[in-house]
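Our preliminary data section would be incomplete without showing what the modeling component actually yields. Below, a chain of 584 amino acids is followed by its predicted structure, encoded as tokens that our downstream tools consume directly.
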Amino acid sequence: MSDPLNRSCSATKNEDIWTCEGDERFFQSLYEFIDHETENLQCPEEGPDEPRHFIYRSVFNKVIARATTYRRLLLTIKAGYDDIITALQMRKDEARMTQRTVAASTSHTKSLITCQRRAAQLRERISTLQRETAQLVEDMKTQKWSEEQSMWIPGLTVAESEDPEALDGHLKHLEAQRAALRDRKSHCVPLEVKAELDTKLQAAECHRDQLSTENNRLKVLYERLRLVSDRLSSWEAKEQQVPLEELLGSTRRDIRHTSGETQTKDLQGQEVTDAELFEDEEPTGVDESKLLTDYLDRFIELFDSSQYEEAAFLAARSPRGVLRNLDTVEMFKGVKGPPGSVPPLLLFFQALLMTVPAGDELPAALSLQAVHCVLQHGAVQLVSHAVTHNKLTFSEELGDILTEHAQKNPRVRDLCLALATVVYEACRLERKTALSMCRRGLIHSATELMRDSKVFAAEDCMWVLCRSPSLSLLQLLTEPQRGQAAILSASGACGTLLADPQQQELALQLLDSFVSRGRGVLGEVILEDCGSSPDVWAHMASVCSELNRADLSQAILSVLLNQSGTRVLSPDLEGARLMEHIFL
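Predicted structure:
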């Protein structure tokens, strides 16, 4: 070539091999033309499209116009491509016509089906109208017959209604019925009298309850006065060894200690003091063994007579807790109540958890069995009452029972997890406390607990994360909060999760979040991760590549190689394969 374009060529003298600077600009202009026209014509990214064919046909013409030696060959190729495109367009048009024909046929078929359905509905409607018409005719006949029959005498046939003797007999029968009704009425009283008697009966029962309450109060007062009298008699017999004021003060404290100030209800629903409730059940003095024996005999009597509810309340209120033990549990566990009734064992635990004073904790073994039985029968509110009033001995096993019940019963999941959190906190089991919070959705509270705790290590955080996997929790653990350093390093957390096949997806989600938040975020995370070396991130890039996430692998390696002084991380074949992602 003799023009200036020839003089800028650098590799060959053949005018049809374009390696010069002018040819590069020519191809660059072609690429820009293709991109500009594709964007203006809004061509789809994939699939056949007429505008795209037109664009590339124009580009092919420009290339043919520039070539000389191979122009004939390129024209032949272009003609072949044009024939193929024309054939494809014809097939596409034929397919459209076929689709239209099929659509028209389908529409006609649907119209026929619709007409047939409407005809069937009309036939069904006609049949329904015919049945209703026949029913109306039958009802009219029946009504006409009833009007004629209403003229007859009730209880007599038409022939008897016209017979004088039959009428006389029927009249006597009616008179006898009237006499019987009058006699019955004479033995009855008006409703007003019955209501008055019921009111008086209720008043008498109320008065009886009041007298019973007053009697109980007087009995308590009598016991207290008897105690004071005995103390004074003893004081006089001992020749007044202590001052009277001191004696009265100690006596008053003893009365308060034995009586108490709390109120409860007896089996009839009356509110009585502890002294009234247990005045015959709390043995004192020389007859203690005899009273305990009588109490146990009463329990055995109720138990043997299958009065399990009364026996359960008696055992729960036993003096000195002699029946609040595992032996009593085994007794109730070995019997069954009537069909459809509450199980005896549940009756015992219900009475136990309701009657034990707040703060008076049941033994650990008894607490576990009580909670397990009550949860099995769905009485979660009773367990909540016992936990909040400190009626149980808290232990890790108790918290585990509540957690297991929460996982099996989604309806009470939040309440059981909240109770388990209380138990774990009381036992200072911070890992399980944080896990319960996470399972309830209290991720921020759990993170604050991990951050503020002095005994929470990175292994504990990973233990909680693996048992309650959550991208939000992982982000809170690996990102600085309010100027404080992150609880976990991003490389350490991702490395541990990628090593577990079941947790790999969570680690990939964290890396994706770094990349999606904008350019440079992943680089900042890697540079600020002081707890790891470049080899650790290179290993994570290798794992991402093995998991078919070449985009994440390339992003990590790009950050590592962009730093000054970066070298090939590993001389082995794996390191060389990692480097290939950058140069592909």
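The chain is about 70% helix and 0% strand. The CA atoms of residues 216 and 276 lie 7 Å apart. Preliminary results of this kind motivate Aim 1 of the renewal.
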